[in-house]
Structure formats: C-alpha cells, structure tokens
Specification:
With 356 residues, this protein is of the alpha+beta class. Helices cover 15% and strands 31% of the residues. Strands 1, 15, 16, 17, 18 and 19 form a six-stranded antiparallel β-sheet that branches. It has a six-stranded antiparallel β-barrel with strand order 2-3-4-7-6-5. A six-stranded antiparallel β-barrel has the order 8-9-10-13-12-11.
Length: 356
C-alpha cells in the first residue's frame, strides 16, 4: 500500500513510499557514433553579431508572461498579445526546416556560424548530410553532429562561413508553471510561401526529462524551438502527448550541459519508447541523494506522498547518490510495478530503521 511520507525536515525520520510507475522517457548511456569532430565548447561559440532577443518589458508584462500573475484586464491582454506578435516576428529568421533523406522536421539556429538545435529523432545518427531550409526558401547544406537519443536532443552544423541570424539560449531549470511560451516549427514540413506558424501556450510541467506545454504541435514541428517572453530558446519540440495540445519539449539546459559531446559528434542514450516508466518529480543532486525540487500533481510521486525538499536516497533495491542514479533506477523498473523509495531529511543524520 502507499505510505505518505512524514515531513522530512521536521520529523527527521526515514519513511518508505510505494511509487506506481507510469509512462515517460528517461536517458541511458550508449556507445558513441563515428563522425568528424567539431571543436567542443561550453555551449554555442561566441558570436560577433548579437543574437535575436527582446529587451525586458515593464513589470506588469514580465509578471504575466512569467506566470506570476494572471491577466486581469483588457490592458493586460493587449500587452500580452503585442508581446506575442513581437516574438513571432523576431524568431522567424532563425527557425528553419530540416530535411534528411525523405524525412523532414524543424530546427533553430543558435550561433552565427550555423549551429542548429533540433530533436534527436530528427537529426538521427551523426555524420549524415542534411538540407537546412531558411525562412526565404533558400536551401543550404549541413551535417548532423551529436545526438542524445535518451532525451531526444540533436545538433546540426550548417556548412560554409556565412554569418546566420541566430537565437539566444535561455534557461529552463527555473521556468515556472503557468509561464507563457511560444512554439515555432514547420508542421507538415517546409511549405513555400508560408512562414513558420507560431503558437502560444503555457508551461504545464517542468522536469529534467522534458517541459510539457499546451502549445499545439503536429507532425513536422519536431525539432522546432520553444521561446520564452524575450524570444530566448528554452526548449526544443520533441513529441506530442495525449493530445496535440499537450506536448513535451527537450529542456534547453541539457543542450548546454552536453554541448561538448554534441559538438564532438557523439551519440548516446536509448531512443524514447512508449511505455517507459515515469514517476513525476524533478530533483537536484544533494549531499546524500536527490533533493526533490518539484512534484507533478497527480503523478506517482505525488500519490506516494513525496514533497518538495524530501531527499531520495534509495529507489528499489539500490542506493541513490545523484539524479542520474535515480533516472537509471526508474528506467530499469517495469511500468505499472510498485517500487520502494526511501527518503530522509536533508541532513541525512537520522538513524536507519531497525530492519535496514
């Protein structure tokens, strides 16, 4: 049966939580592929030309767009609408179509020398020839670089020395629930005479494995960018959820964190599979496990009683020393099975239960 955890900070005692596993994709390491390496760096290389971005708006606009305040008047709605229109116009030059063989998707240019972020299932294996379709219909050649199939991130490099319009990278870790966002892409593939459709929505969930939004997406949008209120890239369109208005994006922070591997043409991770387990929490490495930073309402973790600031130190039969350990442990479990997750207070000084 499910056991609700005591308050881990006040009680300073251990407890067991029975977690019913559902469906989600988690990353697992895999051997790298062979491709000509591009010099790795911590994120896209610096650009002499400024990226496409917008200045901060007034306090009212920033609060509404960040989800801290709901629009309360016609004026708020007009300000929001104007900002969305400004973002739509600003991001079109850097939102591109991606064509590989007979398949197509979307991407976003993030450096003046032509690095393009896309979804891993769009770019596929490293070292492939690719055609990038620009806003004006011009086609330029490129090559696929690294890919993390586990989280569905991919990187492409446009050939040549031309300087390209490019978007600025934002941050996804602190993205608030309810924050407004804008998705772009080429649904159905690039179509001459049609600009990239822009769709506005809000953040429904923010986890290390994916950002869930209600921006409507369809086939061909995969690999396209998700922007925040200042036209900064905060995610990459990955997959459609239960409906076309419930979609998962790859968090932009994972591109930053794994840039050296992506730029070097490495391939790792297992492709996301329908039926993979999911527990519904976000966390960060703590001194003796994983500190819970967010629990998705209605998720297995929520139903089991896990709370923000709980520290998970065991899952199933194994110890948990990092968030990566937790990801691997969840991925190794069977969907629909129950697993014991052991939590303790943040100082981890409480004694174990006698039967441990």
């Amino acid at each position: 049966m499910a056991i609700t955890c005591r308050d881990s900070i006040l009680q300073r005692w251990l407890c067991w939580c029975s977690l019913l596993l559902l469906v989600f994709a988690m990353p697992v390491a895999q051997a790298a592929g062979d491709v000509e390496a591009t010099s790795p760096s911590a994120g896209p290389p610096p650009s002499a030309t400024p990226p496409i971005t917008l200045p901060p708006g007034d306090e009212r606009l920033e609060n509404v767009f960040a989800g801290r305040k709901a629009p309360a008047s016609k004026d708020d709605l007009r300000v929001l609408e104007t900002r969305l229109q400004t973002i739509a116009a600003a991001v079109l030059p850097c939102t591109v179509g991606v064509q590989i063989g007979g398949g197509s998707g979307s991407g976003v240019i993030v450096s003046e020398d032509g690095f393009v972020l896309t979804a891993g299932h769009v770019s596929g294996r490293p070292g492939q020839k690719v055609t990038i379709v620009l806003q004006d219909g011009r086609r330029v050649p490129g090559k696929t670089l690294g890919v993390n199939f586990g989280i569905d991130s991919g990187l492409i490099k446009i050939d040549g020395d031309e300087k390209w319009p490019h978007a600025e990278l934002g941050r996804s870790k602190d993205l608030a629930l309810g924050a407004w966002c804008v998705a772009a892409g080429h649904p159905g593939g690039f179509q001459p005479g049609r600009t990239s459709p822009i769709r506005a929505g809000r953040v429904l969930a923010n986890q290390p494995g994916g950002i869930v939004t209600d921006c409507m997406l369809v086939g061909g949008d995969s690999g396209g960018p998700l922007f925040d209120g200042r036209a900064r890239v905060i995610g990459i369109n990955s997959r459609i959820g239960g409906t076309v208005a419930e979609n998962v994006c790859v968090p932009i922070d994972t591109y930053r964190d794994t840039w050296p591997r992506l730029a070097a043409g490495e391939a790792w991770g297992l492709p996301a599979r329908k039926g993979d387990p999911f527990i519904g929490l976000s966390g960060e490495d703590a001194e003796s496990g994983v500190r819970v930073t967010q629990v998705q309402p209605g998720s297995p973790a929520d139903k089991a009683g896990l709370k923000v600031d709980d520290v998970v130190c065991r899952f199933g039969a194994g110890p948990i020393a990092s968030f990566e350990d937790l990801v691997k442990a969840v991925r190794a479990s069977k969907p629909g099975a129950s697993e014991n997750a052991r939590t303790e207070d943040p100082t981890c000084n409480a004694p174990p239960w006698p039967w441990q």
